[in-house]
Description:
This protein is mainly alpha-helical. It is built from 3 helices and 2 strands. The chain has a two-stranded antiparallel sheet with strand order 1-2. The protein is flat, with a radius of gyration of 19 Å. Keywords: Chaperone, Mitochondrion.
Amino acid sequence: MQVLGVFKSLHRTRMTVFKEDDRALTAARLKINEEFKKNKNETSEENIQKMIKMGTDVEIVLRDTVMQMEHVGEKRLLLRPRESHMLENVPYCDEPRKKS
């Protein structure tokens, strides 16, 4: 059951990370499906757990580090960050904070 959960999670993340990019969506779908099909006959519990861990790690990397960019000119790119990449805007301060 864990395997199916990782499979679905990877596909949900793929849909979010590569939204509106048909080429990347297709490539990611094919790669996910290929990896799961390649290992569908695995019977070793230890190897299955390692692959589940790998799939979970890949999902985290995709979700947390991949950002979309779009060519908008010859030498210009438009960055399209997801909401999860946005941080609070904290003003920069040269002086270290005083410990209270």
